[in-house]
Amino acid sequence: MRFGFKNFRSRKRQAIREQAEFIRQSLGDKSIVLVGLMGAGKTSVGRRLAARLNLPFTDADKEIEIAAGQTIGEIFSEHGEAYFRDGERRVIERLLNNGPQILATGGGAYINQEIRDNIIDHGISVWLRANLETLMERTSRRDHRPLLKTGDPKTVMQHLIEERYPVYAEADITIKSRKVPHDVIVDEIASALKQKFDGNADAPAQGLK
Ligand code: S3P
Q1: Pocket of ligand 1, beta carbon within 6 A
Q2: In what order do the strands lie in the sheet with 57-59?
Q3: pLDDT digits (tens), the chain, 209 positions
Q4: pTM of the predicted model, to two decimals?
Q5: I need a labelling partner for 182 at 20 to 30 A (CA). Which of 20, 36, 89, 189 fits?
């Protein structure tokens, strides 16, 4: 029994390694770009996906803060949203030249047509789609997000869902982000990527658009 279980686990690990190798090869120098609303899990899932695929992880918001020498909150309050969006566009354009990598983007990035076009050219987009309840639960733990301070956070989030979900829906892959361990989401993203690269894009598969 014990031997059988151990054998099963090592076969599973081997399968995960082979899947990762296949995805890395298929990716070439493209990036896997995580998109979706605040609280969708782009950073936490992105880090784990990077570890799974043995690729570097980059957080676009962090890079914007480094480039500006200010936090996102400071950029919004001192210079306004338009200034932030301009910096965001330039930083993401630069980061997309550094693939292959896992790139987590801020919630508004994919909504910008120019950034979206750039992602199409240099990446595979993965939308982490979460419902209002999940997004509120996760974003209420911290208060560093300027957009959620512009009104009642739940109303703002609901509004953003209505406005942005039709745009996020253009992503190459859609994964339902929900209350399950991050590794489950990582498994689903990896399977969807494998299927996409296998050329089975039309086959019905969980998580594949
Ligand atoms: C924003 C999301 C934030 C950050 C900024 C604006 C948005 O990133 O880029 O506060 O427009 O949705 P996260 O989605 O990582 O919280």
Answers
A1: 38, 42, 61, 72, 106-108, 145-147
A2: 57-59, 102-104, 31-35, 123-129, 173-176
A3: 566 777 888 999 999 999 999 999 999 999 999 999 999 999 999 999 999 999 999 999 999 999 999 999 999 999 999 999 999 999 999 999 999 999 999 999 999 999 999 999 999 999 999 999 999 999 999 989 999 999 999 999 999 999 999 999 999 999 999 999 999 999 999 999 999 999 854 444 444 44
A4: 0.93
A5: 89
Q: Whose C-alpha lies nearest to ligand 1, atom 15?
A: 106
Domain count, the chain: 1
What is the distance between the alpha carbons of residues 165 and 161, in angstroms, rounded to a whole number?
Answer: 5
What is the spatial distance between Cα 177 and Cα 129, in angstroms, rounded to a whole number?
Answer: 5
Pocket test of ligand 1: the residue of 95, 147, 156 to mutate, having most ligand atoms within 8 Å of its CB, is 147
CATH of the domain at 42: 3.40.50.300
Q: Which domain holds residue 202?
A: 2-206
